[in-house]
Design brief:
Strand order of the largest sheet of chain B: 1-2
Shape of chain B: globular
Largest interface: A-B, 113 and 139 residues
Mean pLDDT of chain A: 84
Order of helices and strands of chain A: HHHHHHHHHHH
Helix content of chain B: over 70%
Number of domains of chain A: 2
Largest sheet of chain A: none
Low-confidence stretches of chain A: none
Radius of gyration of chain A: 22 Å
Structural class of chain B: mainly alpha
Strand content of chain B: under 5%
Oligomer: heterodimer
Number of strands of chain B: 2
Strand content of chain A: under 5%
Number of helices of chain A: 11
Number of strands of chain A: 0
Helix content of chain A: over 70%
Radius of gyration of chain B: 24 Å
Low-confidence stretches of chain B: none
Distance between the termini of chain A: 62 Å
Mean pLDDT of chain B: 87
Largest sheet of chain B: 2 strands, parallel
Order of helices and strands of chain B: EHHHHHEHHHHHHHHH
Chain lengths: 229, 320
């Protein structure tokens, strides 16, 4: 039971907004010590997991020069101008379209991008541009809501359609696990049983993005009523 | 042998971090010149030489870097607000050509990862198929950079300076995904998962088929929230709850259980700050002041998807 102390430390650290790196490190060291590892053993684990997971940070670092350059020359503004020209566009529809494409390509085991390469430079500005074309100048609250939903559409488009047609990642991991555990499973069955959820996620995306559009509309209306001018 | 390895791109990223460190150290007006310079320099070394260093040394180096941030020695220069007028003018002048590199990058990623997986011969390949997508993304950023330089007619120094500015804005949060992954790993080694799995099995009446399904999916989501990663949660929860109760006791289908169990884990990923690269880093990248805004937007989605997974699993797992 004492081993759960680490979880508590991280939770408290997140809740109190302490330096997150510090609470994560403290949780790791304390959990390791309770489990009977020496400090050097814990540092060895920390070091090897840290190096093994460099791939998580890689795309963000490599994208920064090209994104920084394009943004300085008006990439986000251009994306917004482009979408303003499309009369039927709303923030929700832009995000729905992105989520659908993201899911479709992810189903084939392909990734068209991530938060650094797609959402910040293109998708969020397009959604903001579409909303601005409908509702005029957006309040900060509206902009932040659109951005949060842009990140969400990338995440749910990315997670829930993995490997249905081409098995590359999680399906292989599950197959490997069941093999080791001595439970016979078919690789293709593991992949196909993801399909109902993938379709449901499209419906969920449509619902949330519809709600987003409604909220943006209400917020603009509310703003106008309160506006003395 | 393979021609291109992910390791090459780690070295490239490391060299770029080294450039950032040198720039910070040379800037005498930087408020955290020494701290930030050390921080980025050490990270650069870990990226370039990581696999050749003794892991224990890496561990202590990371600890030292965390200490630097804890004592507030790492930070960015005061941000200069972007010149929105100039950007707008430039956007109009350059037109849709400006979108070309940004759209080119995902196209190259798709084409590259498709191609790399097929281009392998008896004992050599261009890229290890397991790394195809990541290597393609690395290559795509380079091609994208060349295209962007041509479209914007910029000197090479410009993207480097802009990129450094953005990296400094992200600051130490850039380390968070790797640190949390390491924490998840340490939790796994310390057997935190087994404790929780035993606890769930002891508390809940898992001899009822529906309860077994709900407990398994809930534990997948909960565990993923704790570890920050559904892949880390899967073996623990499936060994602790899934196989003994759903498969062995009630004769459920393991493929259906595994597929929907993993997807229930992803519902947990949507809810946890532990999955920093999906939830916290995007909030920073998009410059949203509230770090939990992305998670908040995802709560209703996660709930709706999780309930669906439980329903489908309950209706199918004991039937097929």
């Amino acid at each position: 039971m004492l081993k759960l102390l680490g979880i508590l430390i991280v939770a408290v650290g997140f809740a109190l907004r302490l330096n997150t790196l510090l609470s994560v490190l403290a949780a790791g060291i304390i959990t390791g010590l309770i489990a009977g590892f020496s400090l050097n053993e814990i540092m060895t684990m920390l070091g090897s997991f840290f190096i093994e997971n460099r791939f998580m940070t890689l795309p963000v670092i490599l994208m920064m020069p090209v994104i920084g350059l394009l943004e300085k020359h008006g990439l986000q503004e251009r994306a917004a101008i482009l979408i303003r020209g499309a009369g039927a566009a709303t923030a929700g529809r832009v995000l729905m379209l992105y989520q659908t494409i993201r899911e479709g390509t992810s189903m084939l085991g392909l990734s068209i991008g991530n938060h650094a390469s797609m959402v910040r430079p293109l998708i969020a500005p397009m959604a903001e541009g579409a909303a601005a074309a409908r509702h005029g100048d957006l309040s900060d609250e509206q902009v932040m809501m659109i951005r949060a939903h842009s990140a969400a559409s990338e995440n749910i488009g990315n997670f829930f359609a993995d490997d249905i047609l081409v098995a590359v990642g999680p399906v292989l991991l599950m197959k490997g696990f069941f093999d080791v555990a001595g439970v016979p499973v078919e690789l293709l069955h593991l992949a196909w049983w993801g399909l109902p959820t993938a379709l449901w996620v499209l419906a969920v995306g449509w619902w949330r993005n519809h709600v987003l559009d409604q909220k943006l509309k209400q917020m603009t209306a509310g703003f106008n009523i309160n506006d003395p001018a | 042998m393979t021609l291109l390895e992910l390791e090459h791109f780690f070295i490239l990223a490391g060299l770029y971090l080294l450039f950032t460190a040198v720039q910070v150290l040379r800037d005498h007006r930087h408020p955290h010149r020494i701290g930030s310079g050390l921080f980025w320099g050490l990270l650069a070394i870990l990226f370039i030489a990581g696999p050749y260093l003794p892991p224990v040394a890496v561990g202590y180096t990371v600890t030292f870097m965390v200490a630097l941030t804890a004592f507030k020695q790492v930070g960015a220069k005061k941000a200069v607000a972007p010149d929105h007028h100039a950007r707008h003018q430039s956007a109009i002048a350059l037109g849709n050509r400006l979108l070309l590199p940004a759209i080119g990058i995902p196209v190259i990623v798709i084409a590259g990862s498709w191609l790399f997986r097929r281009l392998s011969f008896d004992n050599w390949s261009i890229v290890d198929p397991g790394q195809a997508t990541q290597v393609a993304l690395g290559l795509a950023t380079l091609v994208g950079l060349v295209l962007a330089l041509r479209v914007c007619r910029s000197p090479l120094s410009e993207p480097f300076n802009e990129g450094t500015r953005l990296i400094e804005i992200l600051g130490w949060t850039l380390l968070l995904p790797q640190m949390l992954a390491a924490l998840g790993g340490i939790f796994g080694q310390a057997g935190v998962g087994d404790v929780v799995a035993d606890l769930v099995a002891a508390i809940l009446p898992v001899e009822i088929p529906l309860i077994a399904v709900v407990a398994y999916c809930a534990a997948m989501a909960l565990f993923t929230m704790i570890m920050g990663n559904a892949f880390a949660a899967f073996p623990v929860v499936t060994l602790g709850i899934g196989i003994p109760f759903i498969v062995n006791t009630h004769g459920g289908n393991p493929a259906i259980m595994g597929a929907l169990g993993m997807l229930s884990g992803y519902c947990g990923t949507l809810l946890t700050p532990m999955a920093a690269n999906f939830n916290l880093v995007p909030a920073l990248l998009l410059e949203i002041p509230d770090k939990n805004a992305v998670i908040r937007a995802q709560v209703p989605m996660s709930a709706a998807i999780w309930v669906f997974n439980v329903l489908v699993m309950y209706l199918c797992v004991y039937r097929f």
